[in-house]
Amino acid sequence: MNFRNFAIGLTASFGLAWLAVVVVPFFTMRDLAPVAFQEGIDAQTGIYHPKTAGRVVNGYEVYAENGCYLCHTQVARPTYAGNDLGRPDFAGLSADPDRGDTRRESNPFDYLGLDFAPIGVTRSGPDLMNYGRRLLRDHPADAESYLYRRLYNPRLDPAVAAWSNCPGLPFLFEKKEIKGQRSDRAVDAEVKAGYEIVPGPKAKALASYLMSLQHDDAVPASMNYAPATTNPEG
Ligand code: HEC
């Protein structure tokens, strides 16, 4: 093999992969065109406006710097690539009390405003794309305090205590002397008498980010296959 063929081969092997995986997605998704709902197919009309949950960027950074994406995905794959819509409440709730079946595939609008789409590396733990929905459904009265307890130490939840390898983040919490009344945010965990454990700013940011993970708003059927759409083409 001469150098010329070697150089061409090298460029083709790496260049084509780079084009397909980096360049093409970048140019197709950097400047997303608005998508319209279609009359007769979708339940609503007009342009799709993604629902955003205010300022969650701080919590997203805490999520990134603690490597949560190594075990948790945030993507309901298109159905040709895997049956994520069939997994229990990953892609939305199959029986939302107000809206019925809200499951849908992820789309590029779900990651608007973030530097990187936290689609995840492995799926050792459950997908978190709609964790906020599951949390509010399962812990309607005490979602926030349940979440602090779980972030402090997931194994405080008896349901998973025996086997969960989800890391606790005790370093995002502060041990504080109780002065007067206990803080209503205090984590219900064992600690020296007279002290309590309260979430620090990063734990609070991470909790509001996790609660904001509710990516199941209705999208135009043209963008998505979801069991609840009325798209005649399925
Ligand atoms: C070593 C892999 C691993 C890493 C890293 C990890 N998790 Fe987990 N996570 C799991 C597993 C396994 C479960 C399922 C058992 C459980 O509920 O604890 C889980 C469950 C969860 C749940 C509950 C999901 C549900 O649907 O009930 C949340 C919330 C969560 N993890 C948040 C985090 C956050 C935030 C981070 C980053 C600080 C993180 N995890 C990092 C493995 C991991």
Automatic annotation (TrEMBL):
InterPro entries: Cyt_c-like_dom (IPR009056), Cyt_c-like_dom_sf (IPR036909). Residues 54-214 form the Cytochrome c domain. The chain crosses the membrane at residues 6-27. Keywords: Heme, Iron, Membrane, Metal-binding, Transmembrane, Transmembrane helix. It comes from the Bacteria. This is Cytochrome c domain-containing protein. It comes from Haloferula sargassicola.
